[in-house]
Amino acid sequence: MRVVVVCLLFLASVATASAQEGSVERTCPIDGNRFRYQPPPPLTSRETYLDQRPVDPNYPWPHAKCPGNGFVLYKSGFTEAELGNLREFVRSDQYRQLVDSHSTHYLEALLRKHLGESPYAVAWSLVQASWQAAGDPARYKQYAGEALATYDAIPLSALTDIRHRILKRMLSAELARRLGLFESARDRLLAMRDDGEFSTKFLQRIVEFQLKLVRAKDTGNHRIPY
To answer: Has residue 195 got a pLDDT over 60?
Structure first.
């Protein structure tokens, strides 16, 4: 019996060491507590789905999350002014009620919104949150719906970078299709098909593929047709 116990303890220590291999120590900027975080592995494929989610099964990877207060480290550093703004919010009942039930990217969107960051950055965080909710239809609908509403509230004239304009419109059409809003998705795609910003063969191929999915009333997740 003693031999069995010793073996089990040895195996447990090996499992713990294996789990910590490659992990890094992070310091929570809100309370100063240290914790370990497993950073994401390298991407094994450059392919993506139409909603920009990597095809790699390891992704989306969760952000580092402070174990005590649920703050997510969605970027490498925060200014003192940002932390001063965020501390009260993170400690609020509103935030604490959401910490355990929502994805780290959704919490990122809340933090970005609280800081008054650009709606474009908030929308992108919500899109990534929808990736994390792929296996939960109700939660996916919430995250994707909020992402679509956030994108729709951004005037195209406010986006000076053509890449941002294209991605906003492509993702908005994709989110509408995934949510079963087929008429809305079709109208968006037809407008894009006739727009000079989408004149490249690659973008036209994506638009035509999405229109085909809309006609089939397909709400599934599909890879970008390269």
So the answer is: yes
For residues 10, 13, 17, 20, the Cα torsion angle rounded to the nearest 10 degrees is 160
- pLDDT higher than threshold 50 for residue 122: yes
Tokens of 150: 């956030």
Beta bridge partners of 72: 65
Angle between helices 137-152 and 119-132 (to 10 degrees): 160
Question: Residue 21: what pLDDT?
Answer: 58
Using DSSP bridges, classify how beta strands 34-37 and 64-65 pair: parallel, antiparallel or unpaired: unpaired
Residues 150, 126: Cα–Cα separation, whole Å: 9
Q: Phi and psi at residue 164, in whole multiples of 5°?
A: -70, -40
Please give the helix or strand (H or E) that residue 73 lies within, else none. Answer: strand 72-73
CA distance 168 to 58: 25
